[in-house]
Amino acid sequence: MASIAGESTAQPGSPARALALADYEPKSMLHAQQTRVERAKFPVIDVHTHITVSAKSEKGIDLGAERLYLAKPDELLRVMDAKNIRAMVNLTGGFDDGLVDTIRKYDGAFPGRFYTFVEPVYNRFLEPNYPQIQAEGIERAHRAGAKGLKILKTLGLYLRENLTSGRLVRIDDPRFDPMWDACGQLNMPVAIHVSDPIAFFTPTDRFNERYEELNNHPDWSFYGRDYPSNAELIEARNRAFARHPKTQFLVLHVGNFAENLDNVSENLDRFPNMTVDLAARIGELGRQPRRAGQFFDRYQDRILFGTDATPHGVETPQQLFGEKLYEIYFRFLETADEYFDYAPANVPPQGRWRIYGIELPDSILEKVYYQNATRLLRISS
Ligand SMILES: [Zn+2]
């Protein structure tokens, strides 16, 4: 007997009540090729990881040198050796004693396997000679063995005139000019994260493609209040790039605009001192595999492999350091597999879609996996 549309008595096996979005975990019925890539085809340098984090921070500002160590070297090296990861770059190495300690425990103890970046000492921002203090901090970090400078989205979205209150400080604020210059003079690349996914700047409502993620992390929303728009953040960033042509900027997360590869391409064409990494954005690249393939072809000398891997980072499955995470990245870059998960999670954590591999040729794969990184970091290949 045919069912009557709108009738409230459900047929056996059909839903009797509304299903909460959080409970919905559909399994794909697609019969698709599944290639397991256990080891990367070439040695890999993961330029974007977080092995240590600040022990004390408030409203996005790190307040002291002390570090938390998220994993010991042997735990990391086991995964690295299994997956053909030659080196991990720990971007959040902190500053002062915390930095020195981090370099000693990782880079120093296992040469060639770990590299560490320094971070700005924002807790001295209110001192009148901060620009000079910060530039000298870069020089000290260089002597201590730091390979580059990391800028978190703190600059542009959290740092305020009185540290945690007052007007937001712009990315191109002239007080940071001596810091950018010091990095240029010392050949230390600046790994910079500005802005965030474009959906984080729109209301957390039923039209938001990252609704679940923003609903789980309301503090990730930069919609409203006194936040600048994504476009304003990128413009301020670009003014800093233009003013410091001798400083190399590694713009993380596919130039912080993986949803708009036209924009990233324009900026790569405009700024010869700009490179990008892939970290935590294969979800974006892999949902536009043909456009992403063209992007890799055109900018093959300026794209670096990175994951944003964070040991025990269960809050953000797309960053959870481990064998599974690396296998997904390798599958995306090396195979033509279709419609697979971009993160080790039951529900895609950065938007409910799946991705397609881009099957890079060996010549590009080698550049992305390690050659571009060895050049930027000035380490031997
Ligand atoms: Zn990161």
How is this structure best described in words?
The chain has 381 residues and is an alpha/beta fold. 34% of the residues lie in helices and 11% in strands. The protein has helices at 73-83, 96-108, 130-144, 154-157, 177-185, 211-216, 230-243, 252-256, 261-270, 282-285, 289-298, 323-334, 362-377; strands spanning 44-49, 52-54, 57-58, 61-62, 67-69, 85-90, 114-118, 148-151, 190-192, 249-251, 274-277, 303-304. The strands form three sheets. Strands 1-6-7-8-9-10-11-12 form an eight-stranded parallel β-sheet. The longest helix is centred in the last third of the chain and has 16 residues, at 362-377. Bound molecules: zinc ion. Zinc ion is lined by residues 48, 50, 308. Zinc ion binds at residues 48, 50, 308.
Quick summary:
By secondary structure, the chain is an alpha/beta fold. It is built from 13 helices and 12 strands.
Considering the chains and any ligands shown, give keywords for the structure.
disordered N terminus; eight-stranded parallel beta sheet; two-stranded antiparallel sheet; globular; 12 strands; 13 helices; alpha/beta; binds zinc ion; 381 residues
Q: Structural class, please?
A: alpha/beta
Largest sheet: 8 strands, parallel
- Topology as a string of helices (H) and strands (E): EEEEEHEHEHEHHEHHEHHEHHEHH
- Helix percent reads 25-40%
Task: Indicate the mean pLDDT.
Answer: 95
The tally of beta strands, per DSSP, is 12
Distance separating the two termini:
71 Å
Provide the gyration radius in Å: 22 Å
Bound small molecules, deduplicated:
zinc ion
The percent range for strand residues is 5-15%
Strand order of the largest sheet: 1-6-7-8-9-10-11-12
Regions with little confidence, pLDDT below 50 for 5+ residues: 1-8
DSSP summary: helix tally = 13
**What coarse outline follows from CA principal-axis ratios?**
globular
